Amino acid sequence: MRYGEPYYMIELSDSFITKLETMVLGSDTTDAVVLSKDGVNPELSQLRSSKVSWLNDEELSKSLLGVALKVNSLSNWNLNLYDVEQPQYTVYNSGDYYSWHIDQDPEVPNLEKRIRKLSMSLFLNEPKEYSGGELDLELYSPDSDERSESFKLSKGSAIFFPSDIWHRVRPVISGVRKTLVVWFGGPPYT
């Protein structure tokens, strides 16, 4: 049984987005991979095609955790959150995608200490700058005609959702899609 909102959207300030754009401007991106307890998992890495860069900025992480804690309360999720993972700047070029997945994985290191409970995708460019690339969240029951809802938000808009929700990024048809993805964690469920 799930409590609270299925997802929660907010708009971040123009000054925050400008500061973030400055951070990612010179970022060196590498091919995205999927990790397991043994490191890079080549089979699972085929589920995605994009470029990523990790932002190591304590002030940014602290600020995003503060936003997540507020959203956690407003959405009535009331998750026990105390940790934020390093933010991931992601670039999807034409043909890039991320197939259906969830952000919780029992093989991720440090499971005994914390697990991902809340995920965030922050859109960093306008929808008119690319076609395709919608974020789909599976929100409805298997017997529903439509099991998912699609999102293509304006620049500066963020969507939060529980990390155990199945989601994907549809293939980008043209242009470039830019996002910041962040995961917030807490102790394992008991």
Q: What can you tell me about this protein's structure?
A:
With 190 residues, the chain is an alpha+beta fold. The chain is 17% helix and 37% strand. It has three helices and 17 strands. The protein has helices at residues 14-25, 42-45, 58-74; strands at residues 8-11, 30-31, 35-36, 39-40, 48-49, 51-54, 83-84, 88-92, 97-101, 115-123, 130-132, 135-138, 148-151, 157-162, 167-169, 172-175, 177-186. Strands 1, 2, 6, 7, 8, 10, 14 and 17 form an eight-stranded antiparallel β-sheet that branches. Strand 3 (35-36) and strand 4 form a beta hairpin. The protein is globular, with a radius of gyration of 16 Å. The two termini are 15 Å apart. The model has no long low-confidence stretch (mean pLDDT 91).
- For the record, give the distance between the C-alpha atoms at the N and C termini, rounded to a whole number: 15 Å
Mean pLDDT: 91
Query: Poorly predicted ranges (pLDDT <50, ≥5 residues)?
Result: none
Q: What share of residues are in beta strands?
A: 35-45%
Helix content: 10-25%
Backbone CA Rg: 16 Å
Largest sheet: 8 strands, antiparallel
Number of helices: 3
Q: Secondary-structure element sequence?
A: EHEEEHEEHEEEEEEEEEEE
Count of DSSP strands: 17
Shape: globular
